[in-house]
Amino acid sequence: MTSLSAPLNVEFDYTRSLGPVLGRFITGLRDRRIEGIRGDDGRVHVPPVEYDPVTARKLTEWVEVAAAGTVRTWTWVSEPDEGQPLTRPFAWALIQLDGADTSMLHAVDVPSPDDIRTGMRVRVRWAADPVGSMHDIACFEPGEAVEAQAGQGEAVTMVTTPVRLAYTHSASAEETRYLDGLREGRLLGQRCPVCRKVYIPPRGACPTDGVPTVDEVELPDHGTVTTFCIVNVPFLGQRIAPPYVAAYVLLDGADIAFQHLILGCDASSVRMGMRVEAVWRPREEWQQSLANIDHFEPSGEPDAPFETYSQHL
């Protein structure tokens, strides 16, 4: 049997409030101005910190620094990754701006590693259209500071940062069997030879006894809601309009529940112990994925007694 592998992408936009210190710093970048903050020992921190790193006192003395500085150390990036400041080879460098006592990490745009050195003077290359983010400093380039036209606008209080992770997932032999089973409309778990618990998806080993789980068990697509929550908050990428229910469903014969959607009924009617059955997508859409089960819905059976699932919450 050949184990499955597939590329996976995890991505979302992370939106956060900046607070008074980072908000002022980012607003300054939008206006093509760089500000640091003075610590209790007199050092100027750039980027600014909210609290002194030694005394933990809240810091309030702002200091404008220059848009040029000195490379303190650097490393060469010959093959830039997606999302990095430059699409061509560049240097990551720690740059101490004039007037600052700490260094900030940023990209330096030079043609080759022969064109950068420790002690080199560099200046900010501002983004053509500043929006109020760290990317308003497009990168650094060799040279001294030049006067930039100041921007203006309302204070920046929020930033949205895209987060992306692309990787290749290689399934274990047990997971491959489980995924191949889903493609055939089967739910395959494995039983521990010691405690006799049935795990789905299979783990390859019992987390309690630490022994291989080689006994394969096919489970029905009926089960019991053990716990649930009603989703009332909309978010980006949501495929179902709230309110709806995400629940842990314990398949009959299994000893561990997995999460899925409960649809086909009013969200307020879902309850612990409710009996449910899988609603499969059309067979022609089946693939090696639990997404073959579109959702679970009430089966119409009487609720399961609490004692039958109380050890699986």
Structural account:
With 313 residues, the protein is mainly β. 7% of the residues lie in helices and 38% in strands. It contains two helices and 18 strands. It has helices spanning 19-30, 173-183, and strands at residues 5-17, 34-38, 44-45, 62-65, 68-77, 90-97, 104-108, 121-126, 137-142, 158-170, 187-191, 198-199, 215-219, 222-231, 244-251, 258-262, 275-280, 293-298. A five-stranded antiparallel beta sheet has the order 7-6-5-8-9, with no helix packed on it. Strands 16-15-14-17-18 form a five-stranded antiparallel beta sheet, with no helix packed on it. The protein has a three-stranded antiparallel beta sheet with strand order 3-2-4, with helices on one face. A hairpin with a 6-residue loop joins β11 and β12. The longest helix has 12 residues, at 19-30. The two termini are 35 Å apart. 25% of the residues are buried. The model has no long low-confidence stretch (mean pLDDT 94).
Properties at a glance:
313 residues; mainly beta; 5-stranded antiparallel beta sheet; 2 helices; 7% helix; elongated
Helical coverage, percent range: under 10%
**Number of DSSP strand runs:** 18
Provide the low-confidence segments as ranges: none
Indicate the overall shape.
elongated
Mean pLDDT, as a whole number? 94
Strand portion = 35-45%
Q: Please tally the helical runs, counting DSSP H or I stretches of 4 or more residues.
A: 2
Strand order across the largest sheet: 7-6-5-8-9
The N- to C-terminal Cα distance equals 35 Å
Biggest pleated sheet: 5 strands, antiparallel
- In terms of structural class, how would the helical and strand content be classed? mainly beta
Order of secondary-structure elements:
EHEEEEEEEEEHEEEEEEEE
Radius of gyration: 28 Å
